## 1
Amino acid sequence: MAKKEVKKEIIETIPEPIPEITPENLVESDQEIEDLSGLPKRDLFRINEVADYFSVSDRTIRLWIAHGHFQIEKLRGTIWVPRSSILKFRLRSRVI
């Protein structure tokens, strides 16, 4: 009989499931994301600027681009990362 009582106690102490947390739940609006980002008010950023923003090397940003984490635009031989791509990556990689 002791086993049944122990199982009942274990079941009673299991907490309710935590609701799924998504980026939409974390912020009120796109404007709030931009206000908290700390990025200058520009549409495109060079690789070295993105690297400085995330405090990583240029090589790391190039690897993230190769793995599809950022969308890019090439203009006159220069790779540019759109602001929206940086903000989306920041939200996806956010640790809670």
## 2
Amino acid sequence: MRKWIGPATVMAVAFAGGVLWAQPKNVQPPPQIISGADFGFRVDSVGADGAVSGRIVVRQKGEWVEVRLAGGPKRLELK
């Protein structure tokens, strides 16, 4: 029985080390969304001065989806 204590201890320590090594290291919290019913603002970061940066999102089929705004300069036609 005593001859099994050493190998069993080594196996238990190796198993515990493997479990701890395999755990995710950088688990980030879900993004904070400031919203109404279907329109919101997802906070990406807050600067040292308190300035908030983020993206405009809408709820579509129960998930928040980033909005891609269509717009920009348009060519003017003279008649």
